[in-house]
Amino acid sequence: MKLNPSKIVDCTIRDGGLVNNWDFSVEFVQDLYKGLNEAGIEYMEIGYKNSPKLLKGAEAAGPWRFLDDDFLRTVIPQKGTTKLSALVDIGRVAEEDILPREESMLDLIRVACYIKDVDKALQLVQTFHDRGYETTINIMALSNVMENELLEAFELINESVVDVVYIVDSYGSLDYKDMLYLVDKFKTNLPNKRLGVHTHNNMQMAFSNTLVAAEHGVELLDASVYGMGRAAGNCPTELLVTHLKNTKYTLRPVLEIIDKHMIPLREKEEWGYIIPYMITGSLDEHPRSAMALRASDDKDNSVDFYDKLTTPEVSFDSSKGTK
Amino acid sequence: MKLNPSKIVDCTIRDGGLVNNWDFSVEFVQDLYKGLNEAGIEYMEIGYKNSPKLLKGAEAAGPWRFLDDDFLRTVIPQKGTTKLSALVDIGRVAEEDILPREESMLDLIRVACYIKDVDKALQLVQTFHDRGYETTINIMALSNVMENELLEAFELINESVVDVVYIVDSYGSLDYKDMLYLVDKFKTNLPNKRLGVHTHNNMQMAFSNTLVAAEHGVELLDASVYGMGRAAGNCPTELLVTHLKNTKYTLRPVLEIIDKHMIPLREKEEWGYIIPYMITGSLDEHPRSAMALRASDDKDNSVDFYDKLTTPEVSFDSSKGTK
């Protein structure tokens, strides 16, 4: 029996940090790393490798926002089989902070970008690749990208050294047919690249879309324990672990993390299927307007929120930022 | 442009009643009926048409457990375009309580049964059909049915007058490939019957599986507002309303119901993606053991629960009842 080629990239700390401003204790992260190892998960994305000097308000965030190798070594004195990953954003990473891989705790560096910055992202990828890291490029907000732009990006990607190219459903607006369409498009146009998928759960389709992608040859599957991630959250790690066939994953260590850490955390912090996030997902837009609503006193007034988003002549500040 | 043939059967009161023992106020049900009409939803399943004299402990349940036509007329003095449906269970319905359709508030009567009772279910269907109702047969727990039993049942169904045959994912254990398999099986073997689908959300696949079924010709789609239903709940009505293409549905009236009734109700009652229900779903079994756990003081101890369900030699009473 052929082993399932899927590899899970657990993003609990990185994407979940967008919920609690990376306020995870060292014990939390250590327990998570231990559990993911025991569960057989291939990658743990332990945070962002952005530089605090390139980001406003950096001092308020937890250490997982700006990973430092010396700090990481104290957190994880002994690495297991689960590799460590970090995400960087274009324009927020100081290249001089990136050690050669053999001196670093990190194995994989992923570059997130919008379609217009694919060229810049690939320059960063080249740098990380030259320093020995595995690399991915994660093109966000694909549901808002026109075909001609995507095809141009594919040309650049095909000429690059990047290992894995991600299909990212930033707004949680894709259904299985959209996912099948994108997987086919990426496979056809990037015949020599491996693929990854990152979903959001606004419409309760994060897990099912990830399954569809895996079934059609997408190899790296982003997930987070109990779905913790910005706004509606991500594909739940526990569902992939329990449902994917012909894998070596075990569910029990993930349940231990959920019982000990995620259930109490969910009492304090909010993510998941929440109606304003469903609305932004169904309208195929960024959740920032819904996040603003959820932080307000009017958080359960989804009718007014829906009216504002769907009435063209109404100006609704928090929904109008850059994408 | 061809209008989408899908028809939504909103089961909030009937399946949601399994959560709160049908303790919905008349105002709640009236608001729901008004909202479903405004949203363009075709059917509202307003409860069970079982007979209290055939069921123990009946006196404790709300009136939607044992629908009475005189009572229904006071609740809905003026019917809109949304038809009314009731579910009956084998052996719990007194045929003498069923009025001819022209004297009744109900339009559709659905018979739920396990595979071994398909013959009895079809006898009931014949009675309701003769009294003028639209009818469905809902074969529960299909994921636990062997092929030969199913094919025998199809023969009986093909000889019957039943209008619609349901694919029911009682345990929330099916993924999109299972759903495609069942839809194909039902279509091939029941060429002259219309199909319906009823899903549960244990693995966060209720909505996506319903979409897959709809896309492949299944016409009646069960759902409930905010997903309210036993244990992990159902496919959320709001997601079908907003996502199905070429329909006349409008989301706003469903949001009004959610804001006014479902958000406060969810504070008091529990349903949805909850880890013990995920576990029973992934193990393809009835959620009753998880429901017992959630009613206990140990409700968030999913590791012990998982150990009990997956250790063959451990006897675990609440998981051993009849299916």
From TrEMBL, chains A, B:
<protein>
    <submittedName>
        <fullName>Aldolase catalytic domain-containing protein</fullName>
    </submittedName>
</protein>
<feature type="domain" description="Pyruvate carboxyltransferase">
    <location>
        <begin position="6"/>
        <end position="259"/>
    </location>
</feature>
<dbReference type="Pfam" id="PF00682">
    <property type="entry name" value="HMGL-like"/>
</dbReference>
<dbReference type="InterPro" id="IPR013785">
    <property type="entry name" value="Aldolase_TIM"/>
</dbReference>
<dbReference type="InterPro" id="IPR000891">
    <property type="entry name" value="PYR_CT"/>
</dbReference>
<dbReference type="InterPro" id="IPR050073">
    <property type="entry name" value="2-IPM_HCS-like"/>
</dbReference>
<keyword id="KW-0464">Manganese</keyword>
